[in-house]
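For reproducibility, we list the full input for the 6-phosphogluconic acid complex.
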Amino acid sequence: KLSRLGIFGLGTMGRNLALNFADNGVQISVFNREIEVVDELLKTISDTGKVSGFKNVSDFVFSLDKPRIVILLITAGKPVDEAIEQLLPYLEPGDIIVDSGNSYYKDTERRYEYLKSQGLRFVGLGISGGSEGARKGPALMPGGDFSAYKDLEDSLKLVAAKSHYGPCVEYMGNRSVGHFVKMVHNGIEYAIIGAISEVFYVMRNLMRMTHEEIADVFEEWNKKDFDSFLLRTASAVLKQVDEKTGKPYVDVILDLAEQKGTGLWFTQTALEIGVPAMSISASVNSRIISTYKELRRSVAEKRETISSSKVIESFETLRDALFFSSLIAHAEGLWLLTKASQIFNYGTDLEKVLKVWRKGSILESSLIDSILKHNLNFSNCLIEDGDFRAVLEKLLPSTMALSNLCRGAAIPIPVINSSIDFYLSVTSENLPANLVQGIRDWFGYHGFYRVDQPGTVFHFVKPESQSD
Ligand code: 6PG
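The corresponding predicted structure, in tokenized form, follows.
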């Protein structure tokens, strides 16, 4: 019996997604380079009768029903190109390759064109939810060949997470957009993880709360104010105790944050196409600063800081700041996606993107429901919507109060601070960019526009005595 689709790569993600397909009655074939892994998986699920394992690529490909669908679940980068080359000799025109790693969208663009030239259909599939999500229901962001998506749709709907909007899978648009959307998702993820950690830092160092107390507050917010996967995760992590030392586990984790690339790509892309994603960039930079552990240790200063009696009166201030920063992170991410969709002709529908993220993704949060209530037909940014601004304006005083307090206490909270600066800058009619222009022209004859004659380039006429 031929299989509906094939899973290429049986790492944790591949294995879990394979089990998820099998649970949902989809007949699949699996292949892995290290063949013992295939046996292992088959042992686990041999009873289902839904999984056939293969130890060479040709048998694997020929076990698939036509048009053949192969889903790659392998490390992003070179291994994807290698896998494609391994598959090519056995695939036929019209067959489909799906790349579901965290691939760089420019690679996806290249592979899309390459496979198209070979008569094959390519789908870049962003998957969120980690390995647990893959097993129980991930959020799926497919983009690329639309007819290929249609051939995949039913199977993907079966395994995807289900929210009150339906299965968390939607066609995201043309060519490389699936991985672009996943990159945007991860950028937002970085900023929210950063903001939650900064709130923790304040609670710990300024309010002298215990990990247990902080976890309880997070849980409370999660129940009452906004339900969020990342807040639940933070709470669970804070409750862990290290068996060896008896200390809260977070205290024995080195404060050195790593990253695998998507946050960096987000920031690079935002700079390249001109979107001011200030808080997301700050979250990437704060991970980078954290890696200089030895430097930080060697130059660490003890500073006079405000007394702890002056600390925040209510937890609501902190909650509002976290809420504010989380909304700004979404606004920045969606801005990048909107601009990219305009430039690259992705044809992305933001409503669909948000609905996909609503469940199963790392961004899973009731916050998304509140964002969906706003007008998503903006030309640049969600902040154009007056109702959205009204929400932010309400949260702003608390966020600024926290920011001021941290300044006074010499506590760095770069993500939260940058979200304020982003918002204040976007909502300021006048910025000091006039002086920037003036300086540029004075030393480099770069030109500027006048407020009374936009569109015409002017230069300073330097008197002889002032020229340098
Ligand atoms: C997800 C996650 C997942 C992972 C990223 C980011 O949506 O399931 O985004 O893909 O968290 O790889 O990891 P780094 O923080 O290591 O860059």
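Residues 102, 128-130, 186, 189, 258-260, 262-263, 361-362 surround 6-phosphogluconic acid (CB under 6 Å). The CA atoms of residues 267 and 281 lie 6 Å apart. Both points were considered when choosing residues for closer inspection.
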